[in-house]
Amino acid sequence: MKRLLSILLCFVSLSVFANEPAAEGEKAEGFNPGEMILHHIGDSHEWHWLATDTGNFTTYLPIIAYRPGKGVSVFSSERISNGEGEASGKEYDGLKLDHEKLVSTDGSKLYDFSITKNVAGLIGSAILMLVVFISVASGYRKNHGRAPKGIQSFFEPIIVFIRDEVAKKNIGPKYERYMPYLLTVFFFIWFNNLLGLTPGAANLSGNIAVTMVLALMTLVITLASSNKYYWAHIFATPGVPKPLLPIMIIVEVIGIFTKPFSLMIRLFANITAGHIVVLSFISLVFIFKSWAVAPVTLAFGLFINVLELLVALLQAFIFTLLTSMYIGGAVEEHHDADMQIGYSDDSEAAHAAH
Amino acid sequence: MLPAFLSPELGLIFWQLVIFLLVLFLLAKFAWKPILLALKEREDSIEGALRMADQAKIEMQQLKAGNEKLLTDARLERDRMMQEATQMANQHRETEKARATAEANTIIQQAREAIQQEKNAALAEVKNTAAKLSLDIAERILRRELTDPAAQTQLVDSYLKDVKLN
């Protein structure tokens, strides 16, 4: 964290130093690193692969909009694509793009179900996951009762780790029914974190809508599997004097929602922050307009990118670990203070996470 | 108003929910279930094999202990048998000895009896011979005394009387 901060500070001071001589040129070019970065981490209705001097390589994605009264309209985003640098451009079927947001020209209500860049990336990663893990599963059919081979032997230790170190330790004997969710969420986050680091790909796991859905699923699973001890712990927290209970109940009830909220923010913020830092270093090239800055950009950009590879795995692990801790807290038997003393390491760990 | 990247969009929430649940369902059915099942099966088989090996080891030890016990038993049995045999031989010898002694005693007794009889017979013969001798002597003495016929007749008569009586 300290290191990250010092890198950021270094970047800020450098940009200040650089701003003076380049001020005019920058204005003329209209390069705004903040806008560029937000554009890159944000969603889009087209998939912009790369731009050269002669033009852009863009895949136009389908727009699907539902307007009450008007029904559903589906068309290619090419019809309303904004030109370079334009805030809003063409109109089609009473719809236009205001920056990246789909709006109706008459200002009426609109639900945007378009296959955006993130949705397309989501479909791609979903297909990738299905292909990878179904082929892993077929490996178990082919090498039945024998040592794993190929892709199967790469994923087996990870699956076993999630099962033994994450699910079994935090959930306890009922871990088996949560394994599909835990494994799916772990690999979904990991795959999409890595895909998000790929140049040109969608930044899916750094999107708050995606992390919100994942966190809500954890919340729903936790509440759906909660037992009476879980609720007893919330509405009659053991060891709390009676007059304090009303306050504790409020705190505990808020706690139910802060847990998934923290899951949502943690994943989103970590991935977004990583992307912003990488993009900031890349922006240095455009800010300085000099070859001399290339070593710094490359070195720091590479460093942060490699760090992000670690963060990609780490965040997937943390999300899965915390999810299993929350589920473990909900399904745990004997959820009272007396039993927890010297009961087991796992329950204490789960308790500490509350 | 939140910045665009902080406000979750409805469209993406919808697609994320639908596609994630679909992936979850498909992976659970076609990937996680067979994978976890296969892992469990393999672990169970490994554990079973280890347990069997342990059991075999214990059985082996038991077998070894059994063999040793058998060997010890056999040794004890042999010792016992040998002791018994010695004892029996001793006993046999003792009884034989006793029997032989008894027989010898009987023979000695019989011999003694026979000797006694022989002695008695010899004594009786000696007595007879002595009586005969004394009779002969007495006869000769009598022959000289009975020179006169009267005495002879008398003597013959007494003899005849004796013969008659016999």
Automatic annotation (TrEMBL), chain A:
Signal peptide as annotated in the record: 1-18
Transmembrane segments: 119-140, 178-198, 204-224, 244-261, 267-288, 300-327
Keywords: ATP synthesis, Cell membrane, CF(0), Hydrogen ion transport, Ion transport, Membrane, Signal, Transmembrane, Transmembrane helix, Transport
Compartment list: Cell membrane; Membrane
Membrane topology label: Multi-pass membrane protein
Pfam families noted in UniProt: ATP-synt_A (PF00119)
CDD domains: ATP-synt_Fo_a_6
Biological role stated in the UniProt entry: Key component of the proton channel; it plays a direct role in the translocation of protons across the membrane.
Protein family according to the UniProt entry: Belongs to the ATPase A chain family.
Protein's UniProt name: ATP synthase subunit a
Gene name as annotated: atpB
UniProtKB/TrEMBL annotation, chain B:
Superkingdom of origin organism: Bacteria
InterPro entries, per the entry: ATP_synth_B-like_membr_sf, ATP_synth_b/b'su_bac/chlpt, ATP_synth_F0_bsu_bac, ATP_synthase_B_chain
The keyword Transmembrane belongs to this UniProt entry's keyword annotation: yes
Coiled coil (UniProt feature): 46-132
Function: F(1)F(0) ATP synthase produces ATP from ADP in the presence of a proton or sodium gradient. F-type ATPases consist of two structural domains, F(1) containing the extramembraneous catalytic core and F(0) containing the membrane proton channel, linked together by a central stalk and a peripheral stalk. During catalysis, ATP synthesis in the catalytic domain of F(1) is coupled via a rotary mechanism of the central stalk subunits to proton translocation. Component of the F(0) channel, it forms part of the peripheral stalk, linking F(1) to F(0). The b'-subunit is a diverged and duplicated form of b found in plants and photosynthetic bacteria.
PANTHER family (UniProt xref): ATP SYNTHASE SUBUNIT B (PTHR33445:SF1), ATP SYNTHASE SUBUNIT B', CHLOROPLASTIC (PTHR33445)
NCBIfam families, sorted: ATP_synt_b
Quaternary structure and interacting proteins, as annotated: F-type ATPases have 2 components, F(1) - the catalytic core - and F(0) - the membrane proton channel. F(1) has five subunits: alpha(3), beta(3), gamma(1), delta(1), epsilon(1). F(0) has three main subunits: a(1), b(2) and c(10-14). The alpha and beta chains form an alternating ring which encloses part of the gamma chain. F(1) is attached to F(0) by a central stalk formed by the gamma and epsilon chains, while a peripheral stalk is formed by the delta and b chains.
Similarity-based family: Belongs to the ATPase B chain family.
Protein name: ATP synthase subunit b
Organism encoding this protein: Hymenobacter artigasi
Species lineage: Bacteria, Pseudomonadati, Bacteroidota, Cytophagia, Cytophagales
Primary gene name: atpF
